[in-house]
Design goal:
about 240 residues; alpha+beta; three-stranded antiparallel beta sheet; 5 helices
Amino acid sequence: MKFRELKASEIDCRIQSIGQNKAKAIGATILLYKDARVDMNILDETVGAMNWQRGHSVVDGNLYCTISIWDETKGQWVSKSDVGTESNTEKEKGQASDSFKRAGFNWGIGRELYTAPFIYITLQDGEWYEGKDGKPKSNAKFKVKDIAYDNNRNIVKLAVVDSKGKVRYTFGENAQQQTQETVYNWQTLKARATQGGISEEELVRYVTETFKVSKPADLKQDHYQQAFNWVNAKRYAQR
């Protein structure tokens, strides 16, 4: 069973973190993700609406989702499951949606998102404000305009635009990357690793052994880029 790659219109952008870079500018780290409706549509499109089903169960207080697809050859349902995490709103609904999307990843739906490059966008005036806690906040909206994959489903081209349609980030295939805006640091790398289930201890061990540095503070920008690629590969392998 093979599902197609996600189209640009099926991929959403979310601000993961906001902070000040070395150039003293405020920027945002962007994550690519899919909506649960994308999984539903692709399942309907690929196997047919009557040939798949979902179910939820609670194991040790955690909500799991199981997606089952009918195998005509074997004459049985084939199932894959995963656990969800609660969202910031509507705890139960958030867990149900997240576990469904994660189960979809197990089937391969949207798995290519785990090969996404590190996306950093410098925020312009009016795109961020100072919160009550003194930290920068943002309601800026971004979306994927263009995306392409290689034969192994790795992202090789990406363009992200703002709400006005202006290109704010490009990657790969003759697209000139915004090197002046892309400034890597340990906090963003650690956040990316944590999201993928990689501990800080494992991350530190990797960078010190790979780049022959005594501590993360000694990392150079090209080291960070390679480390982000390693983190993405680890996250992909876990799915």
